[in-house]
Amino acid sequence: MADNKIIDGKLVAETMKKEIAAEVAAMLDKGLSAPHLAAVLVGDDGASITYVNSKEKACRSVGMTSSVYRLPEKSTEEDVLKIVDFLNNDDEIDGYIVQLPLPSHINENKIIQSIKPTKDVDGFTLHNIGLMQIGEPCYLPATPFGILELLKRSNVKTEGKHVVVMGRSNIVGTPVSVMLSRKGADATVTICHSKTQNLKEITRQADILIVAIGQPEFVKADMVKDGAVVVDVGIHRIKDNSEKGYHIVGDVDYKDVYEKVSKITPVPGGVGPMTIVSLLHNTLLAAKKNRK
Ligand code: GUN
Questions:
Q1: Is residue 54 predicted with pLDDT exceeding 70?
Q2: Whole-number Å distance between alpha carbons of 55 and 121
Q3: Ligand 1 in contact with 122 (CB < 6 A)?
Q4: Which of 8, 94, 120, 122 is labelled catalytic?
Q5: What is the best residue among 37, 68, 99, 106 to mutate for testing ligand 1's pocket, by most ligand atoms within 8 Å of CB?
Q6: Nearest CA to 71 among 82, 59, 85?
Q7: Residues 6+ away with beta carbon under 8 Å from 73
Q8: Is 55 a catalytic residue?
Q9: Residue 15 above 80 pLDDT?
Q10: Are 35 and 289 in contact (CB under 8 A)?
Q11: Around Cβ 70, how many Cβ atoms within 10 Å?
Q12: Where are the alpha helices (DSSP H) in 188-239?
């Protein structure tokens, strides 16, 4: 029997992929070229390689084309800026991402702010962040957009709700807080972080608790209100004695909180698939603008 407590991100992402694939097919039928997403990957960080591979596979699954620009770990800032300049000016590329983190000798912000805003499908440039802040059309960052879409499509209303966001990163915590407080989402938002005092008292007030802190199984049952909706953005590989040698957990202790929540996103299969499909959504938007 289906467990209606579980917010199935994988299923929702599949539905969105079908919608996107239909739009791509319609473009091809009109004789237009497929949307093209490029990725820049510097170095050999295992997680980054996995993410970029998943993004390429997702592109193929909806009929989009993709390319990956791989640079060695020891590349200089100038090397990366050269690729960024090339991608900014290549009309065949609708949008691209620079996979983070970059090696520590490269100024990440300098690279990100060199991306042409009209190709910034990650929504990381100041231009897109500014538009998001004032509620104007823009490329919204993939994970926050994915979270809002997942809540919407799972019939979780945010209007007037108290949303507590744990974590204030530029990629998730900060933008999701802004987006949820804007007109349309209309939530009351509290942001918690590593210096927050009386954390439990605050998280226990949440109608919707969004956890993006990068700490395995940090959130326990005593931090969650009865009937709360919990969104777990974390993803961690924990070594074990299983055949695979590891298992995956989130930032939330799923088993501990399960009885208390009204709904929860699992890890894996919750927010993760939504992030990738959101990037496809932005790439489709970029391609539609370019083919007008
Ligand atoms: N590293 C972790 N998440 C992301 C993301 O959403 N975009 C990019 N470019 N890098 C990441």
A1: yes
A2: 12
A3: yes
A4: 122
A5: 99
A6: 82
A7: 42, 43, 44, 103
A8: yes
A9: yes
A10: no
A11: 14
A12: 199-203
